[in-house]
Structures are given as structure tokens and as C-alpha cells.
Amino acid sequence: MPDHNPPPILSVRDLNVRFGKNSIAAVSNVSFDLRQERIGIVGESGSGKSTTGRAIMRLLPPSAHIEASQMDFCGSPLLDKSERQMGGLRGKDIALIMQDPRYSLNPVLNIGRQVAEAARLHLGLSRTAALETARAMLERVRITDPVRVMKLYPHQISGGMGQRVMIAMMLLAKPKLVIADEPTSALDVSVRRDVLVLLDELIRENNSGLILISHDIRMVAAFCERILVMYAGRVVESLTRLDDAQHPYTRGLIAALPDPRNPVDRLKVLDRATLETAQ
Amino acid sequence: MIKVEHLDVVYGHKENRNYVVRDVSFSVAKGETLGIVGESGCGKSTVLRSLAGIEQGWTGSIEMDGHPIGKSRSRDELKLSQMVFQDPYGSLHPRHRIGTALAEPIHAMGLGDGWSNVPTALKQVGLPEIFASRFPHELSGGQRQRVAIARALTLSPQILLLDEPTSALDVSIQAEILNLLCDLRDERGLTFVLVSHDLAVIAHMCDRVLVMQNGGFVDELSKNDLRAGTTHADYSRQLFETSFL
Amino acid sequence: MSQAHDHAITIRPPGIGTRVVSSLHRFVKKLADEPLGMAGFIVLAVLVIVAILAPWLAPYDPSIQSLENALKPPSLVHLAGTDEFGRDILSRLIYGTRITIQTVLSISVIVGPIGLLIGIIAGFTGGRTDAILMRATDIVLSFPALILALSLAAALGAGLNTAIIAISLTAWPPIARLARAEALVVRNADYVAAARLYGASPLRILLFYIAPMCIPSVIVRLTLNMAGIILTAASLGFLGLGAQPPAPEWGAMISSGRKFMLDYWWVAVMPGIAILLTSLAFNIVGDTLRDLLDPRHARS
Fold it and tell me: The complex's ipTM?
């Protein structure tokens, strides 16, 4: 670390999210600090991992009640900001990369227009400068023929390329915080690694913080410095290495994964009843 | 048990001919579990759907239990193999109760009304009997997949065709379903053909794995190959490396 | 989870009675969250009750004339006034609900199944059958309902039955197209593939797998169409081609009232209000049904 103790990019204390009249919190008492590092949030469906990401972006539906004793982004509290101020932050200082590029890209605009639009909006560039920035950024995410790709529409490109375009669009304003929600689950295994390596490279280059939300504990362990394991809305464990896992849920999750190098006849199954009582 | 020779599946005509599956041959012994691994669009699901009889546009020859199988199948041929689908939300009729879904195969085959079978069918996949009166939307993904497996087994097929049976499920649920499938295989001496993009799942379940790319097989791996990480083709090595980060 | 194994429950298909009761129960529970839809349902329920109890509810006989009472404004004696023959308008409106309900019901009973069947057959079989059925649907769709009804009435003689036949003939194509669109989606579903694999016959797949998935949207569409049907029926009545006098058909009542409209407004306005309320109620109910039956349109 170059600095001894740089201020955290994001500091969350006791984050609680509740939906509507539902008495059970979707997220309860989540706390963490994010510096210029990569944090992974791991959990199964319904564990509250995506809700946490969206709560930070303030992108939850109006029925959600978000409470936190502290949720500071670069020192200023996110929860006090107006919807307008949040709109200024999103995309420029905080970026969200979602699971399926086919749904997050606008189907009626070509790739060039969409990326250039982001450049105009966040960097205040003119039309021609924005197109030039878009081309450079697409080249940066290792799209070999950016001029051709810029003329294509989202349905004409593959999932892997779509996700690169998404990354180019989201990272061209050099956001301080990037939240990637299952960025590779919709992609084929062979392009997953490329996309992650690319994301990692750009994050380091921009000195940003990354929150990688995924169900794949091995992938997260390989890419992140710190792993938060979520179960039933709570962070049950914070790890730096998978081997240090202590909590029965984390251990169960790892044991449930088949591993061809250590074949077993039966996979370990989570004992949900003991987990419930442990809660 | 299954013998496939020179299987081709072609879409389109003349100049636009597009080989989805090109000259694929393989055989599966009785009681064996064969895995087919590959990325989306490689044709692995099409091979499975041709085996099942859903995909009708194939040429070549398919033999099951020593008899050649045609494109339209008799009821006895259908009873030989059944399929479990990827999406547990789409494979059960949303307006049929679980009991109806489990009674349907027998009813549709004209072998009685099938309801007497429902409790045993539910029990063998580890679900309580009261589930018979529930609708699919009242069940979790894993429970639905159990029902789908139970339904596939009601006609006592010798072959079970599994199309990504766990890729829509959480890891812990995946483990439960894979264990269930292993138990059923051992109990009933079933022959499995398992298609997946997840090499870890394939390696856990299968005795033999075929690696598929662009409509054809590029590699064949034994259980020992998988354990040792041995591969015989560039593509399968690449698949191996990227599967385990 | 485990207590189920303790008691030996005999498992059998639930009877039609319990099924109806449980679905009704769920439906009413969901309806409670939709006050506007509830209001629409109440209006329709009142309409049906009025139609059934017409002889007991109507203060006068709808066809008895008393010329000395002609064109009396609304008062305590005649709540909605009287028409040019001194007939009590309220009583005529009450008896008129019978004609309206009869028209709407018979048209729905004819149009719904025909449209559904043609649509799902076309969507499920595809190919040539689909092309032939859909072209036929397109041809019928291009007839304007009112004009066809006019020519039919001219050929078969004016009357309520002719109006019902004419409207039915032109009302099924939209239903068929809707059912076909749904069937096209459903036939590719995994559960239909699974049904083929366990040997379900095409007829069984069509009626037991595809039809139940298409029925909700057909019901919604029918309900929304009813408003239009009521208006078309009223227009035919207005033009003198629907129910014939002295039948208290609402459209015909407006038609006869228009001659006195400037001086005696209630003669035309009262049936107008009845038509407005009824078609509005059908529209609201249709919208609510869509929200309740079709999860794709559900409000989050």
C-alpha cells in the first residue's frame, strides 16, 4: 500500500434494508470499508448480496426502506443525497455492471452511440470528441476492430463482447467505486476469465474500489483481496483466504462444490437446520 | 445401451446450411454415465434433444437398447428414455398441481390414472406427500427439479437424459440434486447422459466425458484423465484452465 | 416437513368443487387489494342481481302505457321519469338489464370458445393449418362490425338474435389472434416437450396443456370487449336493427328519446347513463382481471 491509511472510498455501517411491510430484513447489519481494493460479496440467491449492491447505488424500488448508521462515499453520506445528486454520481463516480449485457444495453442504439453518450454525459465532451473517446475506450477493453463494432447493435454482438462494451461504458469516467453484480454468470466459461482480468486491470489503473457480487465462491476467492460471505441477509464471515473459513455456512458452501481433483462419492450438503439454530 | 452413428443436425437450406451437429458418433454402455461438455451453441443440447426425440431434424442412426429408433417414436420407445430439463421453472406446467404432473405420464400413456403412484414418486426424491396438492410456484427451484426428476422416472425408463439439470440452482441445492441423481442411478441401474457447461459437475458425475466444440467432439476424457487433469486437445485444456480459476 | 409421513394421507386428484372454492378464495383475496376493480365487480354483480330480480324490483310494468303520464320528469313517483307513452323509465331500464346481460353472455359464450379453439389450433399446429386459419381470421377482421350487422339484419330481419349473431361473427378474430400468440409461446415450453416425451397425444397437449395457459388472457380480452359489445348492441338498437319495440333495449330507448331530447332530457339521458356505467364497469373489471390473472402485467 502506498499510503499508510488512506480514507475509505466507501464506508458502510449497520446497513439494513427492509421491503414494504415485510418484517424480515433483506439485509441486516452489514458493515464494511472499501479502500482501493477488491471486495467480493458471496452468497446464494436470497442472501441479500445484490440488494446490498443496489442499496449502495440507491437503486432499490420505492418500497424498500434503507437504514444505516453510516454509508459514506468518499466522506459524504449517500443516504442524505437527493435523487438528483445520486443521478450525478451514478455512472460518473459509482458504476454498476450487471449480469446480462443483453438487457443492460439499449437495443435500439448502436454500440458507438451508447458509449459516446456515456462520454458526453460524464466527461462533458463534444460529439466528435466523445466518439473518439468511445473508440479509444473500446480499444482499451481489447475489442480488436472498434470502428466496426461501434456500428453494430447489441443483438449483433456476443455476450463476452457485450460485457466488454458494458465495462468500457461504465469505466470511461474512471469511477471511484465499481459494483459488479454477477458480471460473468451469463457468459461462457472461456470468456469469463478474460472479462474478469480486464475488469481487474482497469480497476487497478483507475485506483478504484471494486465490489464483486457473485455466487461463485472460488471465482471471488481468486480475484478479491477480501471476501464477505452473506447468508440470510447477514455477513457471516469476512475472509482473506478460503482456507481460513470457520463459519459452518462458508465451509458447507465450499464442500458442496464438486472438485474433480478431489473426487468424492457424495457431495457434502448444507445442514440448514443447524444453520438456522446457529443464526 | 445407446449407440449413435453419424448424427447430423442441419438447419437451413442450400447455401445457408448450418451444421449444428456434424457427424457425431458415440455409444453409452448400460449403467454408464456419459457427460457432454461444451459452451453455449456447441450443439450439446441438440444432441441430447435428438436422443430424446424432441429434435426431429436429424440424420444418421440412433440405437437404444439394441433397437434402431426412428424420428417418430412408439410409446414403448418413449418409455425407454426420459429427459430432465434445465429450467425448473419452465419444465412444470404452472397450472397443474404437483400430483397432476406426476400422474400425467402414466395417464397419458393410457396405463391408468396414475394417482396411486404419486406418493412413492414424491418419496423417492425426498419430498413429503402433501406436496401433491401444491402448485409449482409454491415450490423452490430445487424442489421443482426434484419433481421434474420424479416425473421423468414415473415411466421407469432405463435411460435418463439430463440437460444442465443444476445450472439454474444454487451451489448447495446443486449438491443435493447431484447426490439424489447418484443415488437413483445406483438404486435403479440407470444410464445417464448428462449435458453441462460446468466441467466440475460433469467430472463429479460422469465415468466418461466428451468435449464438444462447433458441433463435433474434439476430445474424450476418462475419469482418471479428469482427476489428473490430462487432456488431449487444445480446446479441452483451455476449458480446463478457465473452469477452475 | 416430516409430519406428512406420520399420517397415511390418501392422495388423489382434488375434486372440481374444492378446486373452484380454493381458486375463488385466492381470487377474492387478491381482489381486496384493488378497490377500483372491486367497485367494478360490485357494479356487475348488482347488474346481474337486478336482471334476475327484475319483476320484483321494477315499480311498474315496463310496457304498460298511460298517455296522461307521458314525459313526466323524474319525481318520487317515477324516479327516472316517464317516456313519450307514459312508461316508467326506471322499470324499463331494470328490464333492459336482462336484454343487455343476455346479449353479452350469449356473445361471450359463442365468441370465447370459437376464438380460443381457432387460435390454439393455429398456434399449436403451425404450418399450413396456421396459415389458412389466420388468413380466414384476417378476412373476418377486416369487416366493420356495424356494417356486417346492418347487412345481416337486412338479410335475416331485424331483431335481438340477428344482432347477437352479427356481433359474434365479427368479435372472434381478435380473440383467435390473441390465443394464437399465447399458444406460439406455450408450445415451445419445456413442459410441452416433456409431455410429448411421455407420450401425451396432440389433442391432450392442446386441451390440457396449451388451452389452460391461453384461457386467462382470453377471459381478460372478452371482458374488455364486452364494453364494445354493449355499445355495438346499443348502436344497433339505436338504428332500429337490434331488439324491436316495445322491448326495453337501452340503445332503442335512447333512439326514441332523441326526438324529445331538448325538452325532456331524461328520456335519452337515463338509458345513456345505464350504458355508460355498464361498459365502464366491464372495462374496469377487464383491467383488474388482467392484473390478477396475467402476471406479466402485474403492478410491482
Answer: 0.90
